[in-house]
Design brief:
Elements (H helix, E strand, L loop, with lengths): L3 E5 L5 E5 L13 E3 L2 E3 L6 E2 L5 E3 L17 E2 L1 E4 L2 E4 L13 H4 L5 E8 L3 H9 L4 H4 L27 H7 L4 E7 L2 E9 L5 E9 L3 E7 L2 E11 L2 E10 L6 H9 L2 E2 L4 E2 L11 H6 L9 H10 L12
Antiparallel strand pairs: 1-2, 2-7, 3-4, 4-5, 5-6, 8-9, 10-16, 11-12, 12-13, 13-14, 14-15, 15-16, 17-18
């Protein structure tokens, strides 16, 4: 229920403040970036990134009123392409040593997407290792060079098998869970033959972050952040263990699927998530394109804005 304004001043510093101007409550998100801060267009009150009021122009010359006015502000920092803010009391806690936070910037890429449902529904599908054998099933496999930047489309480590082939042909994984001090770990095993077992590990960092393997050389760290009770954003950081990320290619792939500035998916409830029965017969299990985020979105959103769990088994 809190609204904020995030801005970057002329020196490049980020600030996040309560969104209502403390003078008359006007919306600071429409403010002007000038004179060392964010200026409210209503009466010209000016605030720096710490929330300190720098000017109250309608006051008499020499007035010190502005020195006693401070808008509530929140500490922010930029990590791995995302601006993070701390909205709790006291000093911000340290960042966890996730791969995405200790890797150099050249080896990470960040993006996000809007989901029209409760945040927990989005988190649950990410933790579920069984659904990928059906929801993300493809009738044919891609060449490795064509799979770059696409989750579940590369090859499996050590075996060299396309991940899509493993998911398609071995749809009954053995699933084990174990508690950890940060949440829990899920291990799913798909037995290929007497010598090989495909192992996939999912980590949940409570309450709403998870880390999963994308392919043999990249992981995805993702958060489902509620906007309100019936909508959320997922924020993902892709971390490469092979070398620098081709950020331009990964961004271009996703801009075909999401519309800026709101990161709204082009496939959505209004157009039946792009469902095509001809595609469903010959190419993908869902008939909803080749982007797995669209598949997940259908599963999440079709449950309803807040799933009625009294009806599930």
């Amino acid at each position: 229920g809190q609204d904020f304004v995030l801005f970057r001043d002329e020196q490049g510093r980020y600030g996040m403040l309560d969104r209502d101007c403390p003078h008359r409550g006007a919306d600071l998100a429409f403010g002007r970036l000038e004179d060392g801060g964010l200026r409210c267009p209503f009466h010209g009150w000016l605030f720096d990134v710490t929330g300190q009021c720098l000017e109250t122009p309608a006051e008499p010359e020499g007035s010190t009123m502005h020195t006693r006015i401070r808008q509530c502000s929140y500490p922010v920092t930029v990590r791995s392409g995302i601006v993070w803010a701390y909205v709790g009391a006291g000093a911000p806690p340290a960042f966890p040593d996730f791969d995405c936070f200790v890797a150099p910037d050249t080896h990470t890429f960040a993006f996000k997407g809007y989901i029209d449902s409760n945040w927990l529904q989005g988190l649950e599908i990410a933790l579920d290792p069984a659904h990928a054998s059906f929801l993300h099933r493809f009738a044919r496999d891609e060449e490795p060079e064509a799979s770059y930047g696409k989750p579940f489309r590369g090859t499996s480590a050590n075996s060299g098998l396309p991940i899509t082939k493993v998911l398609r042909e071995y749809p009954r994984p053995q699933i084990d869970t174990e508690p950890t001090d940060y949440g829990f770990r899920i291990v799913s095993r798909r037995r290929i033959d007497d010598a090989k077992t495909h192992v996939r590990v999912t980590n949940l960092a409570f309450p709403h972050a998870f880390i999963i393997p994308m392919d043999e050389g990249m992981t995805i760290s993702q958060w489902h952040v509620p906007i309100d009770d019936t909508s959320n954003y997922w924020y993902a950081i892709f971390t490469s263990f092979r070398g620098p990320v081709d950020k331009a290619q990964m961004r271009a792939q996703r801009l075909k699927l999401y519309a800026l500035p709101d990161y709204k998916p082009r496939r959505n409830r209004a157009n039946d998530w792009g469902f095509d029965p001809a595609e469903q017969r010959t190419l993908t299990y869902t008939g909803m394109g080749t982007d797995i985020n669209a598949h997940d979105q259908w599963a999440i959103e079709s449950q309803g804005p807040i799933q009625d769990r009294t009806r599930e088994h």
